[in-house]
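Private note to self, pasted from the team thread so I don't lose it. Backbone tokens:
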């Protein structure tokens, strides 16, 4: 299991729940810390500004050791700080490829200051992919062509430190989508290499 966490960005949703939008970052950080405490100790003591607890047992215990990883979603500066301070991974939301290297660097520089032993995984939601030459107009920014072209393009992300790809395939039908997934699995995926992030 991976726990995905995002602070949220739609102010109206917070208003509907009666939660102050401006306090969402601090609330998210405190919630992450509370979850981690409960995963690591059956009887955690929480003494945060919002949630306090003691003498409350938490079961069942996580099977993963030392605990399930926590991936942080988001692309703003607070989300990047949250990855460096608390996250085991980052999945950007809408971060353009041209900004990825700078954002990864920002995470790692802050990580070095607050948690130097941490090695967060880096994810990326790809542009639309199409293996081969389509006979129809692809979405803007799509990457298409011979498998080697996709390997080269996705390899650029690996060189930046991206270790997980959320793939999006351009297709017009379920059948075409299945064909694209098969082609990617056979001709692109096996040629992608992972570059460790340090």
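Design output:
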């Amino acid at each position: 299991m991976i726990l995905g966490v995002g602070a949220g960005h739609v102010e109206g949703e917070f208003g509907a729940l009666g939660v102050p939008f401006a306090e969402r970052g601090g609330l998210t950080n405190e919630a992450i810390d509370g979850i981690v405490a409960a995963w690591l100790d059956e009887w955690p003591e929480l003494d945060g500004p919002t949630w306090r607890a003691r003498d409350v047992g938490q079961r069942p215990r996580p099977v993963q050791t030392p605990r399930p990883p926590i991936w942080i979603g988001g692309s703003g500066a607070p989300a990047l700080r949250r990855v460096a301070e608390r996250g085991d991974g980052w999945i950007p939301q809408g971060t353009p490829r041209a900004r990825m290297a700078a954002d990864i660097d920002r995470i790692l520089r802050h990580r070095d200051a607050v948690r130097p032993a941490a090695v967060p995984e880096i994810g990326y939601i790809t542009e639309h992919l199409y293996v081969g030459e389509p006979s129809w107009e692809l979405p803007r920014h799509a990457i298409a062509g011979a498998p080697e072209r996709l390997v080269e393009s996705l390899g650029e992300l690996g060189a930046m430190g991206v270790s997980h790809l959320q793939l999006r395939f351009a297709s017009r039908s379920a059948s075409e989508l299945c064909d694209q997934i098969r082609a990617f699995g056979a001709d692109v995926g096996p040629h992608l290499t992972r570059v460790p992030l340090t």
